[in-house]
Amino acid sequence: MSDINIKITDREGVTHDIVAPTDMSMNLMEIIRSYELAEEGTIGVCGGMAMCASCQVYVINDPGLEPMGDEEDAMLGEAFHVESNSRLGCQLHIVPEMEGLEVAIAPYP
């Protein structure tokens, strides 16, 4: 099993040190849900299909994320509270290269 360490700041401003597995095909949205860092029903509303932006995060420290895809870019183009460092958690698949990632969960529309 291979785990990475990431920091996630919840919507109340509390930062959590999280250990995330890289061998379970999870994405950041699923990690946030499994650690219950956002109120039920306010994250991953579309089930991780890049169709709602409820899992939007602000990337504070980018250790080398994959570039944004067209679907993610299009969804963020329609979302609220978008910043230049916005990404969709459902599109950020947990891989070893994400060691040291720091994000803050965006406000829920």
TrEMBL record:
The keyword Transcription regulation does not apply. One of its GO terms (molecular function) is metal ion binding. It comes from the Bacteria. One of its GO terms (biological process) is P450-containing electron transport chain. Keywords: 2Fe-2S, Iron, Iron-sulfur, Metal-binding. InterPro entries: 2Fe-2S_ferredoxin-like_sf, Adrenodoxin-like, Beta-grasp_dom_sf. Signal peptide: none annotated. Gene3D superfamilies: 3.10.20.30. SUPFAM superfamilies: 2Fe-2S ferredoxin-like. The keyword Metal-binding applies. PANTHER family: FERREDOXIN/ADRENODOXIN, TRANSFER PROTEIN, PUTATIVE-RELATED. This is Ferredoxin. It comes from Chryseobacterium endophyticum.
